Amino acid sequence: MFVYNYKKKINLIIYRFYTSSEYSFSKNVHKSERKKYEKYGSIVCEEVVPGVKRVSLFRPEDIAHVYQSEFGKIPNHSNSVAAIGKYRKDNSAVFKSGGVLLENDEEWSKLRKKLQKKLSKPQDIVYYIDKIDKVVNQFIELCGKNKYDDVSPLLSRFYLEVMCLVAFDVSLDSFSSEEINDKNSITSKLIEATHDGSKVMMSLNTGFQLWKYFDTPLYKKLKKTQNIIKEFAVEMIDKKLKEINENPDYNSGCLIENYLRDESLDIQDIIAMASDTIIAGINSTSYVTTYSLFHIAKNENVQEKIQQEAEALIPQLDDHMTVEILKNAKYTKATVKETFRLNPIQSGIDKILKHDTIINGYFVPAGTNVLTQNQVISRLEKYFTEPNKFKPDRWLKDNSDSNSKSINGFAVLPFSHGPRSCLAKRLVEQIMHIFLLRVIKIP
């Protein structure tokens, strides 16, 4: 028996979803999901595409239950980028699989264990501090020379430059006038391909997915974007392989070189990882950093506290960034956490239940898509004091606000949780901490 909360009203949700009236998917997703929560309650079922039902969870306790029920098992995620998976399957000469972001079951588990060796521990990412700091200072220098009404395009360039140094030990000179002003430059093409690909994916994931059966116009556009990213990744890996063959004793320490030296990894899987690094770096991290700057700009008290912390930790502008500085940047870290609460990289985690599960008294069978509605939860008074206010202090252990609620660890999951948490979580946080400390310190 398949039992859902508010089952009699499911058809209403389906109808309005497809007519894009009350529940619009493409714009303000969390607001649309909030309406469902207010109307139907903390557990809701809907048919997101024909024949595919999804259960949305609006209670952190239920989210915790789902994660805990997976303990000791290989968790599966619903494929929100399935079209990229099809693209890689169609290009099997280059890609062995969909990659660690797309695969499930044993294929995912084996790949994850191999790839996480170079990213999962704090000491794995310390090596990249100087490289990151160098690009941050280049970003600051560029902003000091020119006035920009919108820094988000520059942040895309910043993260592309950082990720290429981390992954390939290669600088693309992303901030040069030649790269910025030439639409056909490699950096401009990569950024455009990544942004366009993300927009197309949103459309391909909704409605009738005809692209699974033949190349629709939108899918052809996606293929074009992925070809640009794939060709760049292959070129970078070929160059790195040549360097290794010419000088086998030298190791630059970059991520992809470490993978190439691991004989247990297939080069086709490394190409997928390199492609994912570019896509996630340009899209996800630049998005959340833009929002972080937005909130800091609107809240002068937050800006002042970060500046005071930066002044104390980095007295001189030319002081080197160190592990100790980052360890003690507590308010900066809280600011990043608060940004992830209000503007997470994704609104929730889309999972596939591997076993029949009872959720909040309702039986949900194996194979059901379950979406954790963290962005909605993060803005509910029930779980956060003044939820729509940007208050980094709520994350500090010595928070003096007596009205502040204790935070359920499953209310905010910007990087997911458990075995399928984001591989680059520590790296992304480290980049953002360095970036904010340097940028906000400037008088």
What do you see in this structure?
The protein is built from 18 helices and 7 strands. With 443 residues, it is of the alpha+beta class. It has 2 domains: 1-72 and 346-413, Uridine Diphospho-n-acetylenolpyruvylglucosamine Reductase, domain 2, CATH 3.30.43.20; 81-319 and 418-440, Cytochrome P450 (Cytochrome p450). The strands form 2 sheets. The chain has a 5-stranded mixed sheet. It has a two-stranded antiparallel ribbon with strand order 5-6.
Question: How would you briefly describe this protein structure?
Answer:
The protein contains 18 helices and seven strands.
Q: How many strands in all?
A: 7
Proportion of helical residues: 40-55%
CATH superfamily of the largest domain: Cytochrome P450
Spans of at least 5 consecutive residues with low confidence: 1-26
> What is the SS-derived class?
alpha+beta
Question: Main beta sheet: strand number and arrangement?
Answer: 5 strands, mixed
Query: Which term fits the overall shape?
Result: globular
CATH topology of the largest domain: Cytochrome p450
Our count of domains comes out at 2
CATH architecture grouping of the largest domain: Orthogonal Bundle
Report the total helices: 18
Tell me the span between the first and last alpha carbons: 64 Å
Strand order of the largest sheet: 1-2-7-4-3
CATH class of the largest domain: Mainly Alpha
Question: Could you tell me the radius of gyration in angstroms?
Answer: 22 Å
Average pLDDT: 88
